[in-house]
Fold this protein.
Amino acid sequence: MKDIIARARQFATEAHQRIDQRRKYTNQPYQEHLKSVAALVAEVADDPEMIAAAWLHDTVEDTPATFGDLERTFGPAIRDLVAQLTDVSKPSDGNRTVRKAIDRRHAGQASARAKTVKLADLVDNCRDICRHDASFARVYLAEAAALLDVLDAGDARLYRRAQTAVAECARRIGLPAPPQSTLGGDEWRPRRELSLSQRRALRVFTTAFSAREIAQPLRSFDIERPVHELVALIEQYDLEVAGLRRDGVCVGYLRPGAREARGIEELLRTFDPAQVLQGDASLSEVIRVLTRYDFCFVTAMGDVAGAITRGDMQQPVVRMWLFGIITLMELELLERIWALWPDGSWTQLLSEGRLNKAHALLEERRRRGQHVDLADCLQLSDKAQILMEDEQQRAAFGLLTKGAAKRVIKDLESLRNNLAHAQDIVTHDWPQIARLAQRIEENLGLEGERR
């Protein structure tokens, strides 16, 4: 069992390195945080599965790895621990206060083992945030105090360390006492009301494209069939996933690797409520599910009738949708440039070569009778580069450094090029697809708040 820790360390390190994830304030490789959390857990528990889960606790939330990947690599016990440690709220659920309340309820239902890992995560995050961001620390400490209310079943020693970390951080930033559990506002991240054109586009995105358009029919079989017969059917039809019916209702699915099952209990995987969507669910919701699970299931008339995999996201309707999102993002970038530099002084932030290309395009478009200005002639990378020079604009997109912004711009261009040339958009572009989907959900949340 000890080698499972080493395998978890390698898996997590490679997963976070693959997307070049770094600690927000120090720019250290993200595995430094994972190492600290695992070390804290190891101090209070000689439990290889818990220590492995500490290394893996952010992989599903932050990287392309799914719960299925974890189960295939480490087994169901570690998979379940990581699931208990993974936030379940969505940007479309509401503002930060609402989302944190949802995640806190989820943490409150976790096992004592998972709560111990969560306490270690809280301790390390508290240290980091308090040391580097006193302004956000006021928000975070209120959330941490509320979270402690539901983590008391975790290890008592780590619980006391977490209490001490919260109290010391509060004193360091000048608060008289640890914050109460009531949570404050959502001012840590710049928010911005959407323009009329963007709101209209968002409404189109939420109604014109849905899960039912891309779901594949879920072939299902009666659960009463003998196991060897079910396995034979899987092989006969070469199914990636199949449903199991009881009394005519689909109650679960045959998971990958079912061919080696010895009994129905090994064959059946019950549906996780978080991976089941209604047919009218948005594609951004589908992407969010597929970021965590191997399969997204879709209901029709109250029963699971369809399934979606990442491979299904190569379909033309999804490509159209993604191209539309990128177009919408370009519009947002352009409007921000106009708002920040109404006098056109943004030209000072662009290289001479890129500026000359914009001028050449402007001349050609005006020759054709188009009424445009120079900013209209910027490429996507140009617009993003200009905005990312501004610290507040980087923060508005969740990016801390110019280096991180450049990597995101490069990934976005890769996705757009692969979309335009009908290339694979799943193998290498999934993190960017997930980022775009989250951006849409955040904007939808803002639209809901505005109403």
The chain has three domains: 3-172, 211-310, 316-450.
